[in-house]
Amino acid sequence: MSESKSPIQVCESASIQEGGTAQRFNVLYNGEAVSAFVIRVDDSAQGFLNRCSHIPVEMDWNYGEFLDDSGRVIVCATHGASYDGVTGECLGGPCSGNPLVRLNITEEQGKVLWTPAGEVTVPPEGIED
Ligand code: FES
Known about the structure:
By secondary structure, the chain is mainly beta. The protein has no helices and eleven strands. The chain has strands spanning about 10, 25-30, 30-40, 45-50, 75, 80-85, 90, 100-105, 105-110, 110-115, 120. The strands form three sheets. Strands 8-4-3-2-11 form a five-stranded antiparallel beta sheet, with no helix packed on it. The protein has a three-stranded antiparallel beta sheet with strand order 1-10-9, with no helix packed on it. Strand 2 (about 25-30) and strand 3 form a beta hairpin. Bound molecules: FE2/S2 (inorganic) cluster (FES). The site of FE2/S2 (inorganic) cluster has 11 residues, from loops. FE2/S2 (inorganic) cluster binds near residues 52, 76, 79, 93 and 94.
């Protein structure tokens, strides 16, 4: 299993706009293929597993659409659990206080970077969705 701790480029910084559509990518979570995404909230890039803490399903309303009209709250399309777009903390609904799994995302020289850590690793076939 490849387990790099080096930062991996997810996308160009310009690809994710404040409160806009996410960039999706693929990771392994405890060895299982799972979707992940980066969004821009409060002028910073944030990343999470695309996996609701209520039931482990993808949360997009449409492909790459996670945020409500405020541009800073992630809302799960299945039953409406809401999460803080910066911290992933459960704000209400069926997440019952359980947060999203947050990824280690940074930005450097116009690139959004993910540094794998813990149970979240790089799939052997790469991260491209
Ligand atoms: S699966 Fe997300 S709120 Fe139920």
